[in-house]
Amino acid sequence: MVRPLSNAVEVEDVYASYGSHVALESASFRLNSPFFTLLLGPNGAGKTTLIKILVGLLKPLRGRAAVFGYDPLKDRSSVSKLVGYLPQPGSSGVTSYMRVRDLVAMGYLSTRKPPRFISDEVEGVISDSLRAVGIEDLEDRYLSNLSGGELRRALIAATIARNPKLLLLDEPLASLDFSSKCELVKLLLELHRVRGVDVVMSTHEVAHCVYFNPVVVLLNRRVVAYGSMTEVLTTENLKAAYPSVAEVAGLTILAEDHAVKR
Amino acid sequence: MDVVMLMSVASVVLAGSIFSSLGYAMTISQTLVFAIELLHSLVAAALLGALAEAATGVVPMQLVIFLYSMFVSSLVAELVRRGVPRDSVVAFTASLSAVIAVASLWGLIYVTPLGVSRALGTLWGSALLVTLPDLAYLAVVAITVVTVVELFDLEFKYISFDPELAAASGLNVRAYYYLIYATASLSLSAAVKVYGSILASVLVVLPGMAAQYVFKKIDLRVFLLVGVLVSTLGYAVSLALGAQTSLCVGVVGLAVVALGTTSRWVYDRRFNT
After folding, report:
1. Fold of A9-261
2. Minimal Cα distance from B155: which residue of A?
3. For the domain bounded by B3-200, which CATH number is listed?
4. CA–CA distance, A135 with A117 (Å, rounded to integer)
5. A-chain residues within 8 Å CB-CB of B30?
6. For an interface test with B, which of A73, A110, A123 has the most B Cβ atoms less than 10 Å from its Cβ?
7. Single pTM value for the model
8. Cα of A75 to nearest chain B Cα, Å
9. Of A76, A233, B96, B132, which residue is least crowded by CB atoms under 10 Å?
10. Over the stretch A87-108, which tens digit does the pLDDT of each residue have?
């Protein structure tokens, strides 16, 4: 039975906790395709928790999450075919005996049944995916020998290899230099516009995305506001989401590098 | 060459292949330290197996080693998954295994006939005592282990790189870890009779060290080459000197790694590679 595709992402009254620490509290929002969405909020706001719930790695205490109408926990195989997931930098193995080509191959093959070998067809997918993210020359490099930015690109190549409808990216811009951040956002925007891939990306920074006015979900355990960036990033909303907001010379300054004119 | 000698050489080659294939699987899945942690369990499993075989006459030692190794691996995996610190779990299973080892040793020596020689046999093994059924079992296990490692090479690397990413991509990560544990338990159950339970862990680790530091290549063929080379060379030395087999294989293995690493270092410095 083929299910009709409903809202691409639905989060309804979701609660999550780690022991006594509450990570999400009655979080609710809906996203309809096409969208490029930023999950914005301070440390501990529940961004990673929310992404893990949407991928099916965590079970919410209460509430409902759905991706294209599928429950990420009950229908994990359906969700994994539709979604490409990029974990938070640093969560993947530092030492790895995997080459870039193996990673991309597994990105493509992991939704298929074993045995999984790199056939001519898979070779083609590897080349296309690496070309799309601009690292075709790194195909035979071990993952442990890549820079942070290169590894991020390799992981994105692995996620797009399966031709996903939705990318869930956990802080892809963290610990990259300024130009690498700009390049990565440009790449994601191109994937969104050319291939029609929806994007949900958690981040602490919006400067690189301001020019295309993405959808923003402002989070601090609960959803403070969501909508287009220009609508959501008001001083009032930022004060509600962030614990410390300084106001200097007519500008609202967040703890990091965000500034919003009053 | 008589039949006994032929069978012993075949068993040494097969045991070398099994240990090196297992070493490869554990290297790429980054579970190599687990092989060392299993040492206590393996000694306990081998002594318990020998006791069960001697006392019942029908339960093969290999079956007990396989089941006990699987039990310990599963216990560690499940407790760690439920949030118990890994150090505590390994300390607990090592203590449990030490008690079982001592109890089995006592049972072997005081309850069964020829207990002391049986006990020593499980600790250091003997290629010359390998029977035809043992050899057949070794061959089946060698083929199985090499096949599993070849078939799931990409998956083992992927789950070790990031288990959460692998799970989110649709892989059953838990099942793959159990496959590694089953492969390890099967390998150890087959090869303990040839090299004993004390040296088994060393033989899993050595080919990996040689492959990484001497050949600088993580490839199953390199592991197999080093494993079989160390195994047969060690056996030849033991025959020439009339010394204990596992001791000679261990010494030869360490010497190959030390000499190989030094030669590689000198070569790299001289040619700036």
Report:
1. Rossmann fold (3.40.50)
2. A106
3. 1.10.3470.10
4. 22
5. 93, 95
6. A110
7. 0.88
8. 10
9. B132
10. 987 776 666 789 999 999 999 9
